[in-house]
Amino acid sequence: MSSGKSSAWVTSADVARHAGVSRSAVSRTFTEGASVAPETRAKVLKSAEALGYQVNMLARSMIQQQSNLVGVVVSGFDNPFLLSLLGPLTHQLALRSQAPLLMDASEPEQLSNSLRQLMQYRISGVILTSGTPPIQLAKEYLRLRIPVAMINREPLLEGVDVINSDNRQGGALAAEVLCRAGARNLVFLNVVTGTLSPSARGAAFAKALAGQVRRGAVKLRQATAGGVSYAHGFEAARQLFAEPSARPDGVFCTNDALACGLIDGARALYGLRVPEDVKVVGFDDIPMAAYEAYALTTFRQDIGALAERAVACLAERMGAPDMPSRTLELPVSLVERRSTQIPSIESTESAKAPVRRRRLVSPPV
Amino acid sequence: MSSGKSSAWVTSADVARHAGVSRSAVSRTFTEGASVAPETRAKVLKSAEALGYQVNMLARSMIQQQSNLVGVVVSGFDNPFLLSLLGPLTHQLALRSQAPLLMDASEPEQLSNSLRQLMQYRISGVILTSGTPPIQLAKEYLRLRIPVAMINREPLLEGVDVINSDNRQGGALAAEVLCRAGARNLVFLNVVTGTLSPSARGAAFAKALAGQVRRGAVKLRQATAGGVSYAHGFEAARQLFAEPSARPDGVFCTNDALACGLIDGARALYGLRVPEDVKVVGFDDIPMAAYEAYALTTFRQDIGALAERAVACLAERMGAPDMPSRTLELPVSLVERRSTQIPSIESTESAKAPVRRRRLVSPPV
């Protein structure tokens, strides 16, 4: 395209020819700060419209000093929940004629790259998803006066809107579900990442159990996995289940991938049964949670609503950059499956689980 | 930003002030076809450089009629293999100072939206991932003279580079692995999508088995799942295993999600054991394939190489739009896990599987 071949793009030369004006007049019409006679400008705009030149976002972006491109910053690409946000975000941005520019902030070079890109493309705004690293990044955007919205982050920065799932609601409900299922020796499986939603879930879980813990009816402790993935959950099983006399009978995991790993570790390493020996609750409702091998009770984050609200907040902030920060907490839904095995509770079971049965078919591997 | 607030962006006015020239001179320096005296131009460029104005990609894009934005077209966001491509693609594009503009082609409105965006942003090229629908879309891009590269698609269009995993190699190896594991009553589980990689895998599988089928040493039939997901695999288990006298003892599934569903269906619905009663092979090596509950033998597509080659082919085609089409076939690696249980074969086991053991710990659910 750049090698001088003919192109199907309508160029300013085409518009000039059509309008009967000079090419420079066309350029000046679309150039910030350039002077052009009103009737020339009108001719140019009319021809531009007729030829389909009117939709040159690059030209428009230069004039408006913004591009309708929105940076979507992801940290790594191995978190199934984060990936599930990309579809709804792309859709919501398209509804506003905005387009998502994908950026990876998992490595320092990528990070500085993404910042440079932002400056180059006069990006209209940035959506930071959970797991993206330092608050530093958001501060850089703010310094450049680029509007920022964050999904599932702690609301720590003035001038940034935060759209979260209601972690406290989930944590409290997890306590209720595990206790109703008969678990009395409970563990919250935490992670050591910088994002704070795990702590919010754990704090609400502990708060909901505080009375029973005081009365001695329930035991509660916290364990920490080495990371957020399936493999970390599998390893955490050693930590929790190696000592037979100290095994918990109920575990609330801060996300589903950890929970799936923990279940497999409990089964494969110690022959434990879920839910008979240990009940497990996750968070996120990733696709694997509905897999028959896990049938995991979990909390579904409303990814459609998270995306919709994030894009809407960003759009509002583009129009009014100095509005006060907002924090939204969107409700989560309890999805009960066999990992807590309570047949009689009112259920919001997902249609994703291909088969729902009350009795367990014992599946020998 | 657009509301007239002060901005950290360096504007043409800043450059004009710094260079001691008119704002119009700055504009003309960066405007396609506008005339400007060489010494003025030099002053402007020097100030632009000093102030950090030199990296305005929008200006440069207008001049070059392209943007360094590359469209990455995905069809839906529910295929774990496709999502795993996004990381490497983003990384490879960044190495060439290009940025991925994410587009969803799963719905007709999204499709036309994405086309409009392409035209608006003077996109430099497009990468179509497998699963994106009609060849029609690629034709539109070609008509607009936008370079196109496709990943895992049949090479049907002149002027389009195609980067595939070697499906024939995988299909032939799947036959070998299943036969070595002792399976004699084989099924290829196909899907009905428009993409042709499943057929290539099935055809190579059948070809590798042809001699044994002729001699009556092996039986082979094909079954068709209703779609590519876990739930479709689970349903396919009814088709394959409902009739005890006709059960296959080896199944090659066209992707891993199907294979995981099939395994769970075989276990939960019919109490079958994998691999004792039925051996299963998948394709893709998605994260779930390494999960202890599946421990699925599969073929790892080299997503890093697929992304690298696609971005490189696209870059070459940008420089030479009329070069002949190329089709690349990248080798896949066999990853042997317990679903075909052959302890003695040389193995390319993934480090992802947290535990590798020869003997099976029976995990009661």
Automatic annotation (TrEMBL), chains A, B:
GO terms for molecular function: DNA-binding transcription factor activity; transcription cis-regulatory region binding. Signal peptide: none annotated. Residues 341-365 are annotated as: Disordered. Pfam families: LacI, Peripla_BP_3. SUPFAM superfamilies: lambda repressor-like DNA-binding domains (SSF47413), Periplasmic binding protein-like I (SSF53822). Residues 354-365 have a biased composition (Basic residues). Keywords: DNA-binding, Repressor, Transcription, Transcription regulation. Residues 10-64 form the HTH lacI-type domain. Transmembrane segments: none annotated. Gene3D superfamilies: 3.40.50.2300, lambda repressor-like DNA-binding domains (1.10.260.40). PROSITE patterns: HTH_LACI_2 (PS50932). Residues 341-350 have a biased composition (Polar residues). InterPro entries: HTH_LacI, LacI/GalR-like_sensor, Lambda_DNA-bd_dom_sf, Peripla_BP_I. This is LacI family DNA-binding transcriptional regulator. It comes from Paucibacter sediminis.
